[in-house]
Structure formats: C-alpha cells, structure tokens
Write a structure and sequence with these properties.
With about 260 residues, this protein is α/β, with parallel strands linked by helices. The chain is built from ten helices and eleven strands. The protein is globular. The structure holds iron/sulfur cluster.
C-alpha cells in the first residue's frame, strides 16, 4: 500500500508559483509590464496597464505571453512610471477607474503599495484584479490593503468546484478555496471588493453551488457577482482543444452564446 506521505501532489501550488514568478517579474519596487495604458470599455470605461506574471495557468487565459512566457515578455517600470501613464491616459479619455490586467495584480507588494499610495493622492480609483490566491493565503495582506481608500478589489474565481478548477488550471484542487478566503479577509478588513466566477465550463448545478458558497462567505457578494465567459481567441481555442476542454458558453461581440 502506498504511503500517503509520499503521494505526489495533484497539481502545482499557486503560492509556490507566486514566489517563483515574483523572482521573474519583480525587481525591487519595479514590476514588469507589456504596456502601461490602454483604454478599455469595462466598468463603463477604464484605463488599464498590461502586467506580466501570474500564479495560475488557466487553460482559457486570453493573456498568453504575459502569463506563459514572463521571462521574455515586457519591461520593468516603477510605480511612478505606471501611475503617470495611467493617469495621463485616464484624463485623456475621461476615465475615473484605472487598473492593470492580463496577469495577477498582487505580485510584488512593494510595487503595488507604492502605486496605491499614488492613486490615493489622485482623483482615480484603482481596480485590483486578482485570482485571490495570495489574499486568501495571507490575511495580513488584506489588512494592509485596508490602508488605501481609492481601491476596489475584484476577485476572480476559476470554475464552480475544486474538480472543475483543477481541470481548468492544473493547480492543487484545494487551492480553489483561497479566493473565497480572500473575499472573507477583504470584507473583514473593510476593503471594497466583489467576486466574479468563470462559468463557461459549468452546468446549472455548479453555478448554484458556487452561489451558495459565496452567500455563505458573505450574503452581499451575490448582489455584485459577475459571471464570466471565455472569449475564444485563436490561441485560447487551440489551448482548450489541446487540453480536451469544451466550453458550454462563450462571450461573442458583447453577447453570451450557449454552445
Ligand atoms: S488567473 Fe487570470 S491572468 Fe492568471 S492565468 Fe488565470 S486567467 Fe490568466
């Protein structure tokens, strides 16, 4: 009989991957970005930077090189450089919201906190996009974020169960619980936040189950819940097909299409 202590873990640990990725995409107070400011239509208009480096490897990820080739992608920028570019573009387009996307927003705390200090002295609100791994693993991180007033955290949950999450990311199934802990930590610390769930690969029972789990985490989370669907860019479609994954629904030209 196999000794349980010698059993190989079923997947990678996103917290270990966080540390490995930070070695690649963080240098002192600088973090890697591909682009510092582009206007996006989300939230009624936002200016967003394109970061490099993530602690998950979602098979449906649209980001591609910033996630899958962080070593050879992007350049390092200081928080001041990032803020200057974001604020200049946001003023040009009349945006109140600024953000960084296409990777994990919590890598490099020193960089993030310096950036949030600059945002706090401005008229802008920063949307911190995260998969919730780091904030779920460390309650003190959420407490530190409570010091910033111009901040909203958007926690993105990948799938509706541990098993589905593992199929979508190859990460340790139990790490599925971390974004729920992140939401709890943020709410307990008084940080503005909401949840979104990737449901392209889920059935109705799964969606109901994740809604129940969010309600149990905090009833208010259901009011602001966003349900996400994949956009089948060519690289995403190829990656999904290679991994034998078929979505039940996709986002296409602003509409949800059930397949
Ligand atoms: S967490 Fe987001 S950025 Fe990271 S791999 Fe998943 S979809 Fe891509």
């Amino acid at each position: 009989m196999a000794n349980p202590s010698t059993k190989k873990p079923k997947g990678y640990d996103p917290i270990k991957l966080t540390k490995a990725m930070e070695k690649v995409v963080v240098d002192g107070n600088r973090r890697k970005y591909v682009r510092l400011a582009r206007p996006l239509r989300f939230y009624g208009g936002t200016t967003s930077a394109v970061e490099v480096g993530c602690n998950l490897r979602c098979k449906f990820c649209f980001s591609d090189k910033p996630v899958f080739r962080p070593q050879s992608t992007g350049k390092f920028y200081t928080p001041q450089e990032v803020f200057n570019a974001l604020s200049k573009s946001a003023r040009k387009y009349g945006h109140k919201l600024i953000s960084a996307s296409a990777s994990e927003g919590t890598l490099g705390r020193v960089h993030l906190f310096e950036l949030l200090r600059l945002v706090d002295q401005s008229e802008f609100v920063y949307i911190l996009e995260t998969n919730g791994m780091t904030l779920g693993n460390d309650a003190s991180f959420a407490q530190q974020l409570a010091a910033f007033k111009n901040l909203h955290v958007r926690v993105s949950i990948k799938g509706t169960s541990q098993q589905e999450y593992h199929q979508l990311t190859d990460a340790l199934p139990e790490s599925y619980e971390l974004p729920f802990k992140a939401l709890k930590n943020l709410i307990d610390s008084g940080v503005s936040c909401n949840a979104c769930v990737m449901i392209s690969f889920s059935d109705e029972a799964g969606i109901q189950a994740v809604e129940k789990k969010l309600f149990e985490t905090h009833p208010g989370l259901l009011k602001s819940l966003e349900k996400e669907h994949i956009t089948p860019f060519t690289k995403v479609a190829k990656r999904l097909s290679k991994n034998g994954l078929k979505p039940n629904s996709i986002a296409f030209k602003g509409n949800v299409v059930n397949l």
